[in-house]
Amino acid sequence: MRMIDPELLRTFLAFAEGGSLARAADVVSRSPSAVTAQMQRLEELVGEALLAPAGRGRSLTPVGEEFVGHARRILDAHRDAWLSLKGARADGRVTLGSTQDFADTTLPDLLGRFARSHPRVRLDLRIGRTKELTAAYEQGQIDIVLAMRQGPSADELVTLRDPMIWLCAERGLTLPDADLPVAVLDPPCGFRAAAIAALEAINRPFRLAATSPSLSGLRAAVLSGIAVTARTGRFLGTGITAVPKHLDLPPLPDAEFSLRLRPNTEPAPTDLARLLADELPRLSAGA
Question: What SUPFAM superfamilies does UniProt report for this protein, alphabetically (predicted)?
Answer without folding.
Answer: Periplasmic binding protein-like II, Winged helix' DNA-binding domain
